[in-house]
Amino acid sequence: MNQYVFDNADPRNRTRFDSLAVFDPDSHAALAAAGVGPGWKCWEIGCGDGGIGRWLADRVGPGGSVLATDIDTRWLSGDGPVLTVREHDVVRDEPPATDFDLIHARLVLIHLPQRHAVVDRLVSSLRPGGKLVLEEFDLEHPLTTRSTTHRAAFDAVHLPFLRFLRARGVGLDWARSLAEEFVDRGLRDVDVRTRTVLWRGGADEIRLYRVNVEQAAEHLLADGVSTRQLTDFYALLDNPEFTAWSHPLVSVSGTRPV
Ligand SMILES: C[S@@+](CC[C@H](N)C(=O)[O-])C[C@H]1O[C@@H](n2cnc3c(N)ncnc32)[C@H](O)[C@@H]1O
């Protein structure tokens, strides 16, 4: 059984994928900087609703291929001549090939307690000269908001939420060591990019904070968070006077030596 903390069958995942799409331009930029282009053979891991997989398919064109995998592919349609969708657990299942030009995963390994071993396998699944691009949230970055009242209402729920994630094996600080993980495995040309966006209460993207907490609510209540604190947290996310940084997205790329 996989250990992913969020229930993929929950319709609220649509909100999660829509919110994450705000980072697509940053992911596209990191992938473009890695050089992905016509004819490349790519593996998109934990593809979610497949937005990045479709972008890669356009980019590699008819002479290339993109294998988009996830433990649950219900959110992704659009198999075509370039894009292949397949159910695959990156922890449990054998890598589908060992000659990828590019392997990319965004916000997947952070969820996996076995993330170190998974990186080893991903490096071995690249051809010499192939590129690994991993992108993760720095969940330990403190919320940056001006109002102390807003901060108190946010932290009353957000900090227990982070505790819940940590207890389930999520690597809150994994993004911070990612570049060193690449260097330790001999990857070359290691490049790091970080992006944070300012979110305002009521904006579509800030609903990521809401859907995360909603999906963990029963655990938070059991951990002592009150219903009132949850209500205040949701109200804050709808309050246009509330602004907060998103989690910083850390994008790291590296090249397997020839
Ligand atoms: C937070 S979502 C990110 C989705 C997408 N990468 C994005 O950035 O929009 C994490 C995704 O990883 C998938 N996932 C979780 N554990 C996995 C595993 N062991 N192997 C493959 N995919 C996994 C989940 O099903 C989910 O679609």
From TrEMBL:
Residues spanning the membrane: none
SUPFAM superfamilies: S-adenosyl-L-methionine-dependent methyltransferases
Biological process, per Gene Ontology: methylation
A Pfam family: Methyltransf_12
Keywords: Methyltransferase, Transferase, Ubiquinone
GO molecular function, one term: methyltransferase activity
Source organism, top-level taxon: Bacteria
Domain (Methyltransferase type) ranges: 44-132
InterPro entries in alphabetical order: Methyltransf_12, SAM-dependent_MTases_sf
Entry-linked PANTHER family: PUTATIVE (AFU_ORTHOLOGUE AFUA_2G14390)-RELATED, TRANS-ACONITATE 2-METHYLTRANSFERASE-RELATED
Protein name: Ubiquinone/menaquinone biosynthesis C-methylase UbiE
Organism: Actinokineospora auranticolor
